[in-house]
Design brief:
Blueprint: H1 2-33, E1 36-42, H2 49-61, E2 68-73, E3 80-85, E4 108-111, E5 119-122, E6 131-136, E7 147-153, H3 157-165, E8 170-173, H4 185-206, H5 208-216, H6 221-247
Parallel strand pairs: 3-6, 4-5
Antiparallel strand pairs: 1-7, 1-8, 2-3, 2-7, 4-6
Helix pairs in contact: 1-4, 1-6
Protein name: FtsX-like permease family protein
Keywords: Membrane, Transmembrane, Transmembrane helix
């Protein structure tokens, strides 16, 4: 029973370690997008990408508002979230980087990678499951912008959409809600927790006769519990260290 209890303990903390790693990685995307609303802007065919981006950049700049376009590159081993943003406010993006205000020129990039041809500022977020890069708004001209989704701050969404509409572009405010990629810890750890509790119950029942004999020999309940903690504690601590070192 002791082996079963130790194995259940290892499974539980292995699950918790994996979930923590996944959630920490997805936390970066949540920090970037959670306080923003998406809007769809349709670009007329007779307007070049450069003119389209310049018009929006200038109009929002006059009203101290920012906008961001996201492209997800899935050609590599893991997704690469590429963001193109304007530089009109200092609090549009919150993240850990040497360029803390996230004001990016056309020759600069903030990334978990090292793109060629740019002065790269490292982005200090987890890149286990995805990479993230930020570029200047004008660099988005190389993509098909005929009808794309963009990100604006929640508190200025209607205002930003109105400003862009006045330029003659068709704007739709999307009603979608941000969905977090984080895994619910309680849901995925329920079975390991249940196994651990049941194994502990069976362990106690299996040692009931031995504990009764100890009481007859003069052992107190406190001393019996301390002995069990000493015996099982070594296994638990060793298992915990193995899981943590393996995860690291």
């Amino acid at each position: 029973m002791k082996k079963l209890m130790t194995m259940s303990f290892i499974i539980l903390f292995s699950v918790l370690a994996v979930l923590s790693c996944i959630n920490f990685s997805y936390n970066a995307l949540e920090t970037i997008e959670n306080d923003k609303q998406t809007i769809t802007i349709e670009k007329p065919e007779d307007i070049t990408n450069e003119k389209f981006l310049e018009d929006i950049d200038k109009a929002l700049g006059e009203n101290n508002a920012d906008i961001m376009y996201r492209y997800v590159d899935v050609t590599g081993k893991k997704p690469h979230y590429i963001y193109f943003k304007t530089n009109h406010t200092n609090n549009f993006i919150h993240g850990a980087s040497l360029k803390s205000d996230f004001q990016i020129s056309e020759e600069e990039c903030i990334s978990t990678l090292t793109p060629m041809g740019y002065e790269v500022y490292p982005l200090y977020v987890s890149s286990v499951f995805q990479d993230i890069s930020f570029y200047n708004w004008a660099d988005a001209a190389k993509y098909d912008l005929s009808s794309c989704t963009y990100y604006v701050k929640n508190d200025v969404c209607s205002e930003s959409a109105g400003i862009i509409s006045q330029l003659g572009y068709h704007v739709i405010i999307n009603t979608n809600v941000f969905l977090s990629g984080k895994m619910p810890v309680l849901l995925f750890s329920f079975i390991p927790i249940f196994l651990l509790i049941m194994s502990m119950v069976f362990y106690v029942l299996a040692n009931g006769k031995r504990n009764v004999i100890k009481k007859m020999d003069g052992y107190t309940l406190k001393s019996i519990l301390l002995d069990e903690i000493k015996v099982c504690g070594v296994n638990f601590i060793g298992s915990f260290l193995i899981v943590e070192l393996t995860g690291a």
